[in-house]
């Protein structure tokens, strides 16, 4: 029953951030959008199909005024009449592609051609950075792909990666909004970033950018990547630092409005309500959890032990909710997995067979993806064999461990993305 409860709690969080109803209820009260002579739609993200469907539903009585496209992962679809879903990358490959560049350039042309009375809606959600590439002049797509891989491999935070990507782009860091020539641009955002900072979500294509070229160079230096990064990337950032290139906009026009309509906090609130309905006392650790996965898993394992043995900070039956998004520094020749699978494996390895009695651990990405795998995450309980867990953990090979034990969560793409939701039940 605990596994079923964990899945029910996790799914409640996902259901609370389904994009179509969130967009529909927002657009219905936006008079400027509902009365405009033309509504241009752009955007990118894993929630793109649902967001576009919600927008068309809200404007069902005037769809002839709507046109545009949204970059999404390949294979995602929706029943749309006026907004085109553009396949910008393969599923499970979170890096920029030539198809993504083609879609981004079409969006730039659309916004640049806006009439003075036209309005635009930008639909942004998790995965938007990789799905909305438009390399700066002098920087190739291969250069951006290479530096993105280097930053992923060394465990750079999402803020650090986006700082670099914004300064290698023609759309990120407020440049997409800068291209708009119409009356009013409303950016609707489903956040996949800790704290919901507008300049970081999807690398902030419609938000002012507080970072600089010098900040981007500092990220490369911090991780020792100045020598290994493509020469064109370093050269471009150095030109910007030296004032040869204009920096990203620090102020965005007052006719641009950014609004977060879905977040990890919303998902956690729904998960908490469901856990309480199922009879659990809830310890909600919030949506600001970030950092290396394994130390965080070790800390959560300690809380589990405290609940089991000392009934502190609360007594069983207990549900620990952990939001946010962690990272994994892979090192050389890693196995297969993702941060959520690694979290579940690390808790299992730390607790061992004795302390896993009465414990269920579920960690899943709300988008249905976890690393370069077909799983959203993984689940472990007392029936999961602990033997060799540490060996698989050291190799970052959680996917194969849970493939054998039967703990992989294969939900498929959920159509939304608000980071991760982890559910730990202690009975």
Summarize the structure.
With 427 residues, this protein is an alpha/beta fold.
CATH topology of the largest domain: Rossmann fold
Shape estimate: globular
User: Using only CA atoms, what is the Rg?
Assistant: 22 Å
Level-1 CATH class name of the largest domain: Alpha Beta
> What portion of the residues fall into strands of 2 or more residues?
15-25%
Q: How many domains?
A: 2
CATH architecture of the largest domain: 3-Layer(aba) Sandwich
Order of helices and strands: HHHEHEEHEHHHHEHHEHEEHEEHEEHHEE
Through-space gap between termini:
11 Å
Total DSSP E strands: 14
Strand order in space, largest sheet: 3-2-1-4-5-6
Class inferred from helices and paired strands: alpha/beta
How would a crystallographer describe the biggest sheet? Answer: 6 strands, parallel
- Low-pLDDT windows of residues: none
- Helix content class: 25-40%
Return the average pLDDT rounded to an integer: 95
Which helices and strands appear, and what pairs or packs with what?
Elements: H1 2-15, H2 19-27, H3 31-34, E1 39-44, H4 48-58, E2 66-73, E3 83-89, H5 98-112, E4 119-124, H6 128-131, H7 141-153, H8 158-166, H9 175-178, E5 184-190, H10 213-222, H11 231-241, E6 256-262, H12 264-277, E7 281-284, E8 290-292, H13 293-310, E9 318-322, E10 325-327, H14 339-355, E11 359-365, E12 377-380, H15 389-394, H16 398-405, E13 408-409, E14 420-426
Parallel strand pairs: 1-2, 1-4, 2-3, 4-5, 5-6, 7-9, 8-10
Antiparallel strand pairs: 9-14, 11-12, 11-14, 12-13
Q: What does this entry look like structurally?
A:
- There is one protein chain.
- With 427 residues, the protein is α/β, with parallel strands linked by helices.
- The chain has helices at 2-15, 19-27, 31-34, 48-58, 98-112, 128-131, 141-153, 158-166, 175-178, 213-222, 231-241, 264-277, 293-310, 339-355, 389-394, 398-405; strands at 39-44, 66-73, 83-89, 119-124, 184-190, 256-262, 281-284, 290-292, 318-322, 325-327, 359-365, 377-380, 408-409, 420-426.
- Strand 1, helix 4 and strand 2 (66-73) form a beta-alpha-beta unit.
- Helix 1 (2-15) runs antiparallel to helix 12.
- It is globular.
- The mean pLDDT is 95.
């Amino acid at each position: 029953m605990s596994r079923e409860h964990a899945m029910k709690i996790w799914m409640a969080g996902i259901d609370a951030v389904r994009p179509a109803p969130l967009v529909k209820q927002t657009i219905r009260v936006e008079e400027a959008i509902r009365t405009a002579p033309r509504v241009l739609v752009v955007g990118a993200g894993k929630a793109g199909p649902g967001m576009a469907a919600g927008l068309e539903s809200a404007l069902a009585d005037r769809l002839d005024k709507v046109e545009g496209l949204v970059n999404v992962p390949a294979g995602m679809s929706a029943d749309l009449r006026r907004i085109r879903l553009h396949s910008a990358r393969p599923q499970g490959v979170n890096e920029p592609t030539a198809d993504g560049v083609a879609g981004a350039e079409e969006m730039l042309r659309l916004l640049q051609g806006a009439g003075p009375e036209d309005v635009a809606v930008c639909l942004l959600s998790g995965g938007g950075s990789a799905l909305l590439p438009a390399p700066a002049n002098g920087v190739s797509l291969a250069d951006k792909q290479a530096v993105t891989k280097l930053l992923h491999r060394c465990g750079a935070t999402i803020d650090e990666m986006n700082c670099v990507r914004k300064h290698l782009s023609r759309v990120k860091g407020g440049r997409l909004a800068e291209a708009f020539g119409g009356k009013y641009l409303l950016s609707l955002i489903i956040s996949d970033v800790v704290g919901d900072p507008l300049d970081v979500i999807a690398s902030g294509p419609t938000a002012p950018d507080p970072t600089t070229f010098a900040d981007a160079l500092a990220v490369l230096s911090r991780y020792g990547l100045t020598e290994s990064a493509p020469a064109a990337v370093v050269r471009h950032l150095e030109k910007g630092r030296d004032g040869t290139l204009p920096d990203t906009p620090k102020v965005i026009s007052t006719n641009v409005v950014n609004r977060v309509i879905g977040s990890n906090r919303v998902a956690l609130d729904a998960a908490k309500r469901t856990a309480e309905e199922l009879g659990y006392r809830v310890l909600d650790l919030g949506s600001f959890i970030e950092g290396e996965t394994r130390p965080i898993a070790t800390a959560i394992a300690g809380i589990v032990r405290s609940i089991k043995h000392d009934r502190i900070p609360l007594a069983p039956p207990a549900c620990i909710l952990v939001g946010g998004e962690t990272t994994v520094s892979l090192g050389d020749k890693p196995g297969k997995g993702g941060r959520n699978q690694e979290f579940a494996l690390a808790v299992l390895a730390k607790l061992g067979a004795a302390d896993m009695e009465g414990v269920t651990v579920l960690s899943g990405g709300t988008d249905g993806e976890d690393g370069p795998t077909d799983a959203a995450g993984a689940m472990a309980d007392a029936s999961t064999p602990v033997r060799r867990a540490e060996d698989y953990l050291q190799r970052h090979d959680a996917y194969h461990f849970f493939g054998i034990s039967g703990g992989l969560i294969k939900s498929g793409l959920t159509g939304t993305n608000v980071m991760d939701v982890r559910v730990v039940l202690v009975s």
